[in-house]
Amino acid sequence: MKDKTKKYSLFAGFIVILLLLISLPSYASSYRVIFVTNILMYVILTLSWVIFSGPTGYISLATAAFFGIGVYTSAVLSGTLSLPFVILIGALASFCLAFVVGSLTLRLRGMYFTMFTFALVQLISNFAHWYEVNVTGTVGRLVISLDSTIIYYSILVVFCLVLLASYFIKRSKFGLALQSIGESEEAAAHSGINVTLVKVTTFAISAFFMGAVGAVMTMRWTYVDPPTAFDIRLSFMPLLMAIFGGMGNLFSPIIGSSIFAYLEEILTTKFPYYYMLLFGGAMLLVIVFMPHGIEGVFRKFQKNNKQESAKKT
Amino acid sequence: MKILDVQGLKKKFGGLTATANVNFNIEQGEIVGLIGPNGAGKTTLFNLISGAITPDSGVITFKGKNIAGLKPYRICREGIARTFQSVKIFAKMSVFNHILIGYLFGDHKNKASGSSSEEVAKILDFVRLSGMSESRAGDLTLANQKRLEVARALATQPELLLLDEVMAGLNPTEVAETMELVRKIREKGITVIMIEHVMKAIMEICDRVIVLHHGEKLAEGKPEEITQNKSVIEVYLGDSACLPSET
């Protein structure tokens, strides 16, 4: 009974936040809208990263590659197709790449998989650069940028989709399989789970959303070249944000990445020279004092409360 | 009726021959014990049958179909389930979900009519873990974790069950309970091959024993015959002192 009311209030709270987000452009300045767009971008990247890496424990650093594929697809198609199609094609391109790469590399485990995904970003970035120089004879591409409100709403739609996807994957038979793979791949395989297929598909689904964000975010810029499209920082951010927030439920990574992205934005604008220093310091404190992220702190707090009330009665 | 037929099975790890030309077959409904000294290739044989590793050569026929080299999940769905020497459970997952996974992913053909949670409850009841349905698997005792592994394997609705040292590390009461469980499994019509070092269990519940040594079959026969076999005593059982039958 208590669980149910808790569930409903969480749901209601979420609807309120969603309504606030939908009406944002009507009451906030365009600076604020762009600000929130940026935060949502990180939230989506983190959520999609968690879809795969959360349950399986495979630490992927390929986020920037899939984001970049979205960016590049969108830059190439810019002005030729309507926005939803551009986003869809960008997302599908990332999906396909992840599927192929996943089939080849998801037999690697632990450190080796992480290193490979890291190298993948460099490989694709350099390939794009080589292609531009040798084939198209340029170093980048011009993009027809769009109004910030349109970009904001596109991001909001992608956010809702990734949230729904995460929710349904978590609750499904598929999610159960993913969780078991994270615990023991061997046991999962001998229980009848097609481990490779489940891993590769999830990896591709997570890349799908990364590509979608990339395709949308391209429209902010007027010019795209490989180093901006395949920014390696975007590989590390979702990982750090997920650790910061926790991965036990859907809310933790959202809260974690929102706070993290907010901090980053504030620090870069207020302290442009000390930003990295402050950020590094904050990160260290988090790792030392909050090993399980915000979620861990919250749980501890809950536990203490329970013990206190138990003492009183 | 032969349910499993293994012919000329060979597997090398580099220069080490783990199994060399192993031949045997298993009748439907039997409980067969697989014994032998450490490194004899018992677990390798299980890994080959269950698809964890692919044989270099040889044929494994299960219900008339060659399954050598198939992926583990395929072999599981064909009807061969297994447990592991060192328990491999999903530590953070609930007992209930373990069984549910086995049930959902194991078999596609013989799904029972009841809802999945009813089926899970039945299996939990069968292995006597009913009270622990919501416990985290990692919090269970070793004996219960081993039961859980058996239950997960059973949930895939196998026709052949491979038990890899389910009794190792258990106390005498738990061993007795597990022996009872294995008997009950056979009564359900499931064929069992078990690797075991607990000779008491082998003697009491196995219909037949296969002895492996250096990756080859050293002997095969009824438990009583095996304990009399000179070469088996030499390589595995040791002196007659431990065998009450030789007075």
How many distinct beta strands of chain B? 10
| Tally of helical segments of chain A | 14
The total domain count of chain A is 1
- Gap from first CA to last CA of chain B: 38 Å
- Number of H- or I-type helical stretches of chain B: 9
Order of helices and strands of chain A: HHHHHEHHHHEHHHHH
Global shape of chain B? globular
Number of strand segments of chain A:
2
> What letter string, H or E per element, gives the SSE order of chain B?
EEEHEEHEHHHEHEHEEHH
Low-confidence stretches of chain B: none
Residue ranges of chain A: pLDDT <50 for 5 or more in a row?
Answer: none
Describe the model:
The complex is a heterodimer of chains A (313) and B (247). With 313 residues, chain A is mainly alpha-helical. Chain A has helices at 2-27, 30-56, 63-77, 83-105, 110-136, 148-171, 173-183, 185-190, 195-217, 226-229, 233-245, 251-270, 275-289, 293-312; strands at residues 141-142, 223-224. Chain A has one domain (32-312). In chain A, helix 3 packs antiparallel against helix 4 (83-105) and helix 12 (251-270) packs antiparallel against helix 13 (275-289). Chain A is globular and about 75 Å long. Chain B is of the alpha/beta class and 247 residues long. Chain B contains nine helices and ten strands. Chain B has helices spanning 42-50, 72-78, 95-106, 116-126, 142-155, 172-187, 199-205, 223-228, 230-237, and strands at 2-13, 16-27, 31-35, 57-62, 65-66, 80-82, 160-164, 191-195, 208-213, 216-221. In chain B, helix 3 (95-106) packs across helix 4 and helix 4 crosses helix 5 (142-155). Chain B is globular and about 50 Å long. The relative contact order of chain B is 0.18.
